[in-house]
Design brief:
The complex is a heterodimer of chains A (about 475) and B (about 525).
Chain A: H1 7-18, E1 22-23, H2 24-30, H3 35-47, E2 51-63, H4 65-73, H5 76-84, E3 89-90, H6 91-98, H7 102-111, E4 115-119, E5 124-128, H8 136-146, E6 149-150, H9 157-165, E7 170-182, H10 184-187, H11 215-229, E8 233-235, E9 240-242, H12 243-246, E10 266-271, H13 278-292, H14 298-302, E11 303-306, H15 311-321, E12 326-335, E13 347-356, H16 362-375, E14 381-385, E15 391-401, E16 406-416, H17 418-421, E17 430-436, H18 437-445, H19 458-463
Parallel strand pairs in A: 8-12
Antiparallel strand pairs in A: 1-7, 2-6, 2-7, 3-5, 4-5, 9-11, 10-11, 12-13, 13-17, 14-15, 15-16, 16-17
Chain B: E1 3-7, H1 8-15, H2 19-25, E2 32-36, E3 40-44, H3 55-65, E4 77-78, E5 85-87, H4 89-92, E6 97-104, H5 109-125, E7 135-140, E8 148-153, E9 158-159, E10 168-169, H6 170-174, H7 177-182, E11 190-194, E12 200-203, E13 207-208, E14 221-227, H8 230-246, E15 250-254, E16 266-270, H9 272-279, H10 285-294, E17 298-302, E18 305-310, H11 320-331, H12 351-365, E19 369-370, E20 376-377, H13 379-384, E21 406-407, H14 412-420, E22 429-438, E23 444-453, H15 459-474, E24 479-482, E25 488-498, E26 501-509, H16 511-516, E27 523-529
Helix pairs in contact in B: 1-3, 3-8, 9-11, 10-11
The chains are: A alpha+beta (about 475), B alpha+beta (about 525).
């Protein structure tokens, strides 16, 4: 196999052919490569399976504080011996000369049979017996005084052990080091071959990022395409709506808790002048009086709100066009006055589809749902009953999610209540369904925090693939 | 949506079926399981079924679905002469509706008291419209002497309120947290209920008296409901009655004026053909009747129609469509097979959507990544940081989030905010967004905004991008005319003109604005109204 090698790699290979098992530092010292170049070269070689990096432990022996002192002044027992070569000395006099080392010097010299101690009335007299010129410990100290030794280079292990027992005479330091050697493949490679301007085509290149549409927009577009493919036509409407279309037209009573400011964003000092035809207003008002038995107020209906659902767009379309047959959908931003959290946003996207027709039924509504989810790649679904204020009967779709290993509630659906459709002269059943898009997108991208879609975090936007 | 905790061993006893059957059936009552363990299960119920606020109510529903007990859940009210509440003319003008009942021989226990209080709260919030239309007082029957009197007193009136230890005036009570919350519902004269001995037992809709407080050992209850509206008070009482009856209490009428006939049922006629048409099925009349009975309604065939009997507490049933929902619940949703409707319609996207799609494609082609920001922003981001004039700002009322208080009239500042949050990411950074902005007159229009941030970002780069977008999108040539905008640096700021008409602004962002957003590289960009 021919390999294209960088000059750094070639240098390292040549060196390791002559001397194997070198450390990074050694390679750097023995070539004219910097330590960074060396490290990089080793990493490239390793990835190409040309070099092996093996980690090893090495222990070095050096003199400790007392060992260093002994290398200059001699071991305590030697100093004691020297003092008494001229003649026996009193223990107290010795103590003055040897200081803190007296006890250890006496103990070792006595044990080695170098000295004799005689107790007299005035004290102890220490006199010479016989002692060698030089001990193995002293040999080792003078050896270590020249420089550190690897543990396995110590000639006399018993001397090492006896010195090691004495406090702070020698220090053993263990360091981990990486050594590099060549693989058999590298040994046979031709490092002199010139490839004439060839570059390393196998190396990693610096990253660039594809510009792209927003991940949530991709899901929105996918949903839009599914609706269109099912024969639905898109309608759009304003984000700010008179309360009339957002609430009253859907038979939501004016004193209903959902209409309160704590759930809905009202726009300060904004009211709609002409928001519906006089007949539309009259008939909705009559339905409220009849159904809810209260005095309906046009002023409350005039107030401008940020739409809380896309249904306001749908119902206005139905009221203005009174279609006998229709398949329409509306998709866009909706608003709720909520505290922002991992599962709630003040603003999110919703889609809603409706079917108007003579013979359309609840089973058809379920059929469209099943088809919709199938096209979205969700095929384990089931239906549960639920409650929505303006549909009856009402169902919700439950979709099984593998990652979460549970059923997740997705779109809601139902047939518009007659109290909603009758004031606008719509007599045929209106099937309606819809829900939040972020929920589906979270499942698709495997997110647990809905805020991620609106953080505009480039790290995420650049990394999230188009094929989650 | 409200949530109720159901202890499984209690529920097993109440329903007479095992745990697994019960858990499997709960979703088919319209209850969403929020949390589940071996001991209890927490379910969310819809506010139109206040009778599901307690396990007693839910078990009645489960008994129907599981076939333990089907058909009309009838409220039985016994009579006893002495149970009377008289109404004085003083209260008739301020809170005229009153009704009530006596419940005897039940056992509440800890769980019963807890659930009863939860039920009360849900009814107050929903049908009671925060106690305005209806509020409930529940008392220990054995502490009161009949007849009772519903009247009104001045704010100097004194009694010991619930959980209190000493007498307080109404004025003082209105100064407490609970009093403050509902004080707006009363005027100079405050509704009150006395017993025959002259003891104050309740100060509707604010608080009960400590004298009549119930405990876990209370076996006999007095329930009174007062309000501004007779239907609401009656409906509220009906739900309490159904619950207490399911808890094992014997109910007695409390005579009052105007009173409420809560044991009276409502009848509705249902067309079997309509049921089959709406559901897309062909059920026999007896199948329809059985389904309705499983939902605890009365149902009988009469001629070509089905006559349904509906208890008072099922005030969520307004007409045929509501009954059809009951049929499908009783019949079983899982038995309905989804089927696609016949259609020849051809779908299509909205024209504006198509155009926006094109713009987005062009921007991506030019190397811009799409951002997504909220239509609701903050003063800081939209006006203070970019030094923009905030005179025409549109505010929303009482936002719960400080970052979302005003409607955006521009997208550029939000994109700068996005750059600000990404200073640690690799440059160049190029972002765009299309979206709706609002004018002072609340007109909505679609804008395209983009920013490019890197060491060499310049006015010229922004203009090159602008020219390319307009040419590719709609074969439009544009002009840029010197014009000062505080968001842009002096001398590097212009209006965008198409056919002599101003459609946007373009420039290099002013260094002080860059600093306000804590960005560390030059930024250029533009913002342009689409489709005008």
């Amino acid at each position: 196999m021919s390999q294209i090698l960088h000059p750094i790699e070639k240098t390292i290979i040549r060196l390791l052919r002559t001397t194997s098992n070198l450390t990074e530092v050694q390679i750097s010292e023995m070539t004219n490569l910097s330590i960074d170049q060396t490290r990089r070269g080793i990493e490239w070689l390793r990835l190409k399976n040309l070099a092996v990096v093996s980690e090893s432990e090495e222990s070095f022996v050096t003199l400790g504080k007392n060992g260093l002192a002994a290398s200059q002044e001699g071991l305590p027992e030697r100093r004691l011996a020297k003092l008494i070569t001229a003649g026996p000395m009193d223990l107290e006099a010795l103590r003055k000369k040897l200081g803190d080392d007296t006890n250890i010097a006496i103990a070792i010299a006595r044990k080695s049979n170098w000295i004799e101690i005689q107790k007299t009335e005035s004290g102890s007299i220490v006199s010479q017996r016989n002692f060698p010129d030089r001990t193995n410990e002293e040999e080792l100290i003078s050896l270590l005084a020249k420089g550190k030794l690897r543990l396995d280079q110590i000639p006399d292990t018993s001397a090492f052990e006896s010195l090691n027992r004495r406090p702070d005479f020698i220090v053993v330091q263990t360091t981990k080091s990486k050594t590099i050697s060549l693989t058999s493949q590298a040994k046979s490679i031709d490092t002199e071959k010139d490839y004439g301007g060839a570059i390393n085509v196998e190396a990693q290149a610096p990253p660039v990022f594809a510009a792209k549409t927003h991940p949530l927009k991709d899901v929105i577009n996918e949903i839009r395409e599914v609706f269109v493919s099912l024969g639905f036509t898109e309608i759009i409407g304003n984000l700010a709506q008179p309360a009339f279309w957002n609430f009253d037209a859907l038979f939501t009573p004016q004193d209903h808790p959902a209409r309160e400011m704590q759930d809905t964003f009202y726009l300060k000092e904004k009211t709609a002048q002409k928001f519906a035809s006089p007949s539309q207003i009259g008939k909705v008002s009559d339905m409220h009086k009849k159904g809810w038995k209260y005095k309906w107020s046009a002023d409350a209906a005039k107030r401008m709100v940020l739409r809380t659902h896309t249904t306001c767009v749908t119902i206005k379309y139905l009221a203005d066009n009174m279609p006998e047959d229709a398949r329409i959908f509306s998709l866009g931003r909706v608003f709720r006055n909520e505290k922002v959290s991992y599962k709630h946003l003040v603003e999110f996207h919703q889609v809603e589809g409706i079917v108007v027709g003579k013979n359309v039924s609840l089973r058809n509504l379920m059929g469209i749902q099943t088809e919709f989810y199938k096209k979205m790649g969700l095929d384990r679904i089931k239906f549960w009953p639920t409650f929505f204020p303006y549909t009856e009967p009402s169902l919700q779709t439950m979709v099984y999610n593998k990652r979460l290993d549970r059923w997740v509630e997705l779109f809601g659906m139902g047939i518009f209540r007659p109290e909603v459709t009758r004031p606008f002269g719509i007599t045929r059943p209106v099937l309606a369904w819809g829900g939040g898009i972020e929920r589906i997108a979270m499942l698709k991208y495997g997110l647990d925090d809905v805020r991620q879609f609106y953080n505009n975090d480039l790290g995420w936007l650049r990394s999230v693939p188009k094929c989650p | 949506m409200p949530v109720v905790t159901l202890y499984l061993d209690r529920l097993e006893k109440l329903v007479g079926k095992n745990k697994n059957k019960i858990i499997g059936a709960l979703p088919f009552l319209g209850l969403d399981i929020e949390e589940q363990n071996t001991e209890y299960i927490r379910v969310e119920y819809s506010p139109n079924r206040a009778d599901y606020a307690t396990d007693a109510g839910i078990s009645a529903g489960l008994q129907g679905l599981l076939g333990v007990k089907t058909g009309l859940e009838k409220i039985v009210l016994k009579k006893e002469k002495s149970f009377v509440i008289k109404t004085t003319s003083l209260v008739k003008k301020i809170r005229p509706a009153v009704c009530g009942l006596v419940a005897r021989g039940g056992r509440l226990g800890d769980e019963g008291v807890r659930q009863l209080i939860a039920l009360q709260e849900d009814l107050h919030f929903g049908i009671g419209r925060r106690r305005k239309k209806a509020s409930i007082g529940i008392h220990d029957l054995d502490t009161v002497t009949f007849p009772l009197t519903y009247s009104a007193v001045q704010k100097s009136h004194k009694f010991v309120p619930l959980t209190g230890t000493q007498e307080m005036t109404v004025q003082e009570i209105l100064g407490t947290p609970v009093g403050g919350q509902y004080g707006n519902l009363v005027g100079d004269m405050v509704p009150v209920i006395f017993d025959a001995k002259g003891n104050t037992i309740s100060l509707p809709p604010i608080i009960n008296s400590s004298l009549t407080a119930i405990s876990t050992h209370t076996t006999n209850l007095l329930v009174e409901v007062t309000g501004t509206e007779r239907t609401a008070t009656g409906d509220t009482l009906a739900v309490v009655a159904a619950t207490l009856q399911n808890m094992g209490f014997a109910l007695f009428n409390l005579r009052s004026d105007p009173g409420a006939n809560i044991s009276k049922t409502k009848t509705m006629k249902l067309e079997p053909a309509l049921v089959n048409q709406i559901l897309g099925v062909s059920l026999t009349n007896s199948q329809i009747c059985n389904s309705l009975r499983k939902c605890r309604l009365g149902a009988a065939v009469s001629g070509t129609k089905i006559v349904c009997t509906i208890p008072r507490f099922r005030f969520d049933i307004l007409g045929s469509m509501d009954l059809i929902e009951e049929v499908v619940l009783g019949y079983g949703i899982e038995k309905l097979l989804p089927t696609l409707p016949q259609s020849t319609s051809v779908g299509q996207k909205n024209e504006i959507t198509k155009k926006l799609d094109n713009i987005e494609q062009i921007m991506v082609g030019l190397g811009f990544t799409e951002a997504l920001n909220s239509s609701l922003g903050s003063m800081q981001t939209l006006y203070h940081n970019p030094k923009r004039d905030s005179s025409g700002v549109i505010e929303v009322t009482e936002s719960k989030s400080q970052e979302h208080t005003i409607l955006r009239d521009s997208i550029l500042p939000e994109l700068l905010e996005n750059l600000s949050g990404n200073i640690h990411e690799q440059y160049p950074q190029k972002l765009f967004e299309t979206g709706v902005v609002f004018s002072e007159k609340l007109e909505e229009s679609n804008l395209l905004a983009c920013v490019s941030a890197h060491r060499d970002a310049s006015f010229t780069e922004a203009k090159s991008t602008l020219q390319s977008v307009l040419k590719t999108f709609a074969c439009i040539e544009c002009a840029t005319k010197t014009s000062e905008h505080p968001i842009f640096a002096r001398g590097k700021s212009a209006d965008i003109l198409i056919g002599g008409k101003k459609v946007g602004i373009i420039g290099q962002i002013d260094p002080r604005v860059i600093e306000n957003f804590k960005i560390r590289v030059p930024v250029c960009g533009f913002e342009l109204a689409l489709f005008i």
